[in-house]
Write a sequence for this structure.
């Protein structure tokens, strides 16, 4: 399973990169707004820092607007993936960009039918938002299962990108189902590392070594 970092924060990107835990980055307008400053500079730094796919999201409403933005955004780097909304206009833009060989990420996916449409439009990545579904008492993971089944039934190549991740179980369950990618907040990556048995085991090794060597 590939790990993308769901952030526009450079320190988080550098930290995950140094641990070998970052295969790419997804941003969105909210994440860029959280960092403040000039989003263009931020996006340029992210693209320089990341040696993998970087999703940059369009904000236009029409396919024509989205395609104009896509043309601008692809100039930020070779690995830019154009993030498009799961709307009719977004699908038109997705099909057009796919035909031109530009990588796409269809975002704000909340149903298996939306995921099927995104795959038919040729999306490189499809982003079902599991955390936001769970928050409304719908099962985010059930959606991932359904999408996996549909894509496998028909051999769609679109990658399932588990998004809106709230906890390690979203990533673990996504991996067990066979999702291709999870885009993860850095705070959740930090949670993966920790285990009380690792801490107590380490403390015991350290104490025994001190007893043996006096150091
Ligand atoms: O990158 C899109 C998605 O992961 C957003 O998640 O936390 O805003 O629901 P969230």
């Amino acid at each position: 399973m590939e790990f993308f970092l769901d952030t526009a924060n450079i320190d988080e990107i550098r930290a995950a990169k140094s641990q070998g835990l970052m295969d790419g980055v997804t941003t969105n307008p909210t994440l860029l707004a959280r960092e403040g400053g000039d989003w263009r500079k931020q996006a340029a730094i992210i693209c320089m820092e990341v040696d993998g796919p970087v999703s940059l999201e369009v904000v236009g409403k029409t396919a024509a607007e989205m395609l104009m933005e896509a043309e601008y955004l692809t100039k930020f780097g070779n690995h830019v993936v154009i993030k498009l909304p799961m709307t009719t206009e977004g699908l038109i833009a997705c099909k057009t960009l796919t035909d031109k060989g530009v990588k796409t990420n269809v975002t704000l996916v909340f149903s298996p039918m939306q995921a099927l449409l995104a795959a038919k439009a040729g999306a490189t990545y499809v982003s079902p938002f599991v955390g936001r579904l769970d928050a409304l008492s719908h099962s985010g993971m059930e959606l991932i299962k359904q999408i996996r089944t549909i894509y496998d039934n028909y051999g769609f190549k679109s990658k399932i990108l588990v998004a809106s991740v709230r906890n390690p179980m979203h990533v673990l369950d996504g991996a067990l189902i066979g999702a291709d990618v999870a885009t993860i907040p850095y705070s959740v990556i930090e949670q993966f590392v920790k285990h009380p048995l690792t801490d107590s085991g380490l403390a015991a090794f350290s104490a025994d070594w001190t007893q043996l060597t006096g150091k």
Summary: The mean pLDDT is 97. Residues 6, 26, 28, 129, 131-132, 163-164, 183 surround SN-glycerol-3-phosphate (CB under 6 Å). The chain has one domain: 2-213.
